[in-house]
């Protein structure tokens, strides 16, 4: 759960395979259906999430939310997209996120 105007926190996605050579993005879908694509960074060290378990370095991505990203309240959706050098595109399922006033 997030608040309108909140920033400075990472959003993490575990892709469970080595994605270090891929182009990686997060797509933020606003409540009105508008999609915003953000470049995501690759995790380089193991990371333990209290709710999602162990994320292995080179197998997860993260995006640091910046000022202005979370600009409306409601039910958002977020997904990770990774593209190999050969052009193969893999997408995660949409994950729900709530942004409150």
Folded structure, characterized:
It contains no helices and eleven strands. By secondary structure, the protein is mainly beta. The chain has one domain: Immunoglobulin-like (Sandwich). Strands 1, 3, 4, 9, 10 and 11 form a six-stranded mixed sheet that branches. The termini are close together. The model has no long low-confidence stretch (mean pLDDT 95).
Layout of helices and strands:
Elements: E1 2-3, E2 10-14, E3 23-29, E4 35-39, E5 41-42, E6 47-49, E7 53-55, E8 60-64, E9 74-83, E10 89-91, E11 95-100
Parallel strand pairs: 1-11
Antiparallel strand pairs: 2-8, 3-4, 3-9, 5-8, 6-7, 9-10, 9-11
Structural class, please? mainly beta
* Biggest β-sheet description: 6 strands, mixed
| CATH topology-level fold name | Immunoglobulin-like
Q: End-to-end distance, in Å?
A: 11 Å
**Estimated helix fraction:** under 10%
CATH architecture: Sandwich
Mean pLDDT: 95
Give the ordered list of helices and strands: EEEEEEEEEEE
What descriptors fit this protein?
6-stranded mixed beta sheet; 11 strands; 3-stranded antiparallel beta sheet; single chain; mainly beta; Immunoglobulin-like; 101 residues; 0% helix
In short:
The chain is mainly β. It has strands at residues 2-3, 10-14, 23-29, 35-39, 41-42, 47-49, 53-55, 60-64, 74-83, 89-91, 95-100.
